[in-house]
Amino acid sequence: MNDSSPIRSIQQSSSLRAEVERALSVAIISGELEPGTVVSVPGLATQFGVSATPVREAMLDLEKRGFVESVRNKGFRITSVGEDDLREIVQVRRWLEVPAMRIAAERFPADRLPEFRELADQIIRSAATADFAAYLAADSRFHLALIALTGNRRLVGLVEELRSQTRMVGLADLKDTRELEQSANEHHVLLDLLVAGDADAAETLMHSHIGHVLGWWAGRAEDHPETADDASADDASADDASTDDASSVHRTSHPEMSVTQ
Fold first, then answer.
1. CATH 1.10.10.10 spans which residues of the chain?
2. 159 and 147 Cβ atoms separated by less than 8 Å
3. If I label 42, which of 102, 145, 172, 196 is the partner at 20 to 30 A Cα–Cα?
4. Which of 178, 186, 234, 191 is nearest to 208 (CA)?
């Protein structure tokens, strides 16, 4: 594994279990550990340079989160996230994170701008060096800190959980980091919009930014910036148009029939 791999020897700490779980989460989310891969507790313990106990505990935690499933006498298998599941996660994240940017634009604290700029810089540096563990960690801190500006702790918790369920399975296979760097640069653009109080533009950018999960990172069709309500309205309009067309044909074929019977 390369030097930026999250699965490497970790420093002894007061919570090895948490450190191992975090590292494995990053490896799974980024796609370094691909769906279907079977890993063993002893093997991972050797790679991390720790005993089997914290690794086993971390794997059980990941199993509860749906990241892995137990395989008898073998270890744990990395679970997959289907396209429908991924689209649902992205949809719910948009419902929560996009409107939160309007509140952030209204409340953005100027005195905390340097803090957010530094996080954005960390994201850019991590993207440039393809350090996915550092990228995901800084990206998570950045976005959760923005969500926290709403003052709603439950919202922060929900977004954090949804982000942990998101799989960017193509991230670890990136040979060209330009798309990753483009996504990283969007964090500074978002800050510019929030500082300017441009809520509409901030919402639009966040909508497309979350969409990269489907497009760049998962290799699937990326949604265009339209809300679910817009899509529903479009579907409803199409249904109405079809009904109107059918009614028109019906009236033309039977001119003697009244429209209101």
1. 16-78
2. yes
3. 172
4. 186
Q: What gap in Å lies between CA 200 and CA 139, rounded to an integer?
A: 22
Per-residue pLDDT for 76 more than 80?
yes
**DSSP one-letter code for 224:** P
Residue range(s) of every CATH 1.20.120.530 domain in the chain: 83-228
The model's pLDDT over 203-219, given as tens digits with 9 standing for 90+, comes to 999 999 998 877 655 55
Residues in the chain: 261
Select the highest-mean-pLDDT range: 31-40, 172-181, 221-230: 31-40
Note whether 148 and 157 are within 8 A (CB).
no
Residue 75 pairs in a beta bridge with 71
Structure token digits, residue 122 = 């960390």
Q: What is the DSSP letter of 15?
A: T
Rounded CA-CA distance 100/159 in Å is 11
Q: How far apart are CA 142 and CA 211, in angstroms?
A: 17
Cα torsion 42, 48, 54, 60 to 10°: value is -70
**Helix (H) or strand (E) run with residue 140 in it:** helix 132-148
Domain formed by 83-228, architecture: Up-down Bundle (1.20)
Lowest-confidence pick of 195-199, 228-232, 257-261: 257-261
Gap between the Cα atoms of 197 and 36, Å rounded: 45
CB 181 within 8 A of CB 124: yes
Q: What is the CATH number of domain 16-78?
A: 1.10.10.10
Provide CB contacts within 8 A for 127, sequence distance 6+.
Answer: 135, 177, 180, 181, 183, 184
- Give Cα 44 to chain centroid, integer Å: 26
